[in-house]
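Notes from hallway chat w/ T.B., transcribed later so I don't forget. T.B. wanted the structure written out for a chain they're using in a teaching module, and asked if we could keep both sequence and structure tokens in one place. Agreed to drop them here.
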Amino acid sequence: MPLDTADWTICASTRNRLGESILWHPLEQSLYWIDFYGPTVHRQRRGSGVVETWKLDFAETMGSLVLADEGLLVAVDHGLHLLDTDTGKTRFFADPKNGQTNLVYNDGKVDRAGRYWIGTYDVSERDPNAVFFRKAPDGDWVVADKGFVICNGPAFSPDNRKLYFSDTVAHRILSYDLDEQGSISGRRVFFTFANSDGMPDGLAVDSAGNVWCALYGGSKVVCIEPKGTLRRSLYLPANFVTSLCFAGPDLKTLCVTTGWESSTTEATKAQGVGGAVFRRSVEIAGLPEPILAL
């Protein structure tokens, strides 16, 4: 029996090779996301079908973006840069991996106390060299955890006392205790996926504390209760599901990015929906995305 994907609609005309890092800006009432391989940033304002795009020609890939009070902080392959969306200009911000060429920046988020977290991945996608960083209040960079192949997620509980992290290659979500100083401890497995589920990628937490996960290669997003039990699965008509967020004035619209199939070409792209941004209504609202103060 085919899986029901009818509740999803496509909300943007773009077809990204690898859409990622989708976020709803609560002040602008705008949706932001990226194409990892563009590398490009996209924005769609509420009520508009128009998609604005900024392409960064000085990088090969872009792992994520976060909202900042001076525009956007984008993580490209070799470093972190601020993007001014009014002028399109960028300026270098930091490189906590200190030029290591075997690591590339990937998913990042701001926690509910305003701290920035950024993960990396091993270029070979085989060796457990990836590092998960946190920016300290004094400007230093702290190694929060390490020993992964690919760092994805992260996401934070409504009270900011737990951090969730996608250990992608190991097919699991980890959870940590997060204290007021930003230190994490008590690493444990929160949820483990079967190989047939796909690999856990982007995460988001709703206002009830449920953890939502995009499953790359799994054609779905799942909602997991705070105690670690599966609540529901929502299937999409695209296989490579990458990132998700809660959008709209009431934060009850779930928006999801996807990527192309490996066989997709320019000639066949229009025939499929891989790479589209999807949306659907959900019953439980999300939480406003924090904005990084610089």
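Follow-up for T.B.: The chain has no helices and 24 strands. Might be a good example for the class.
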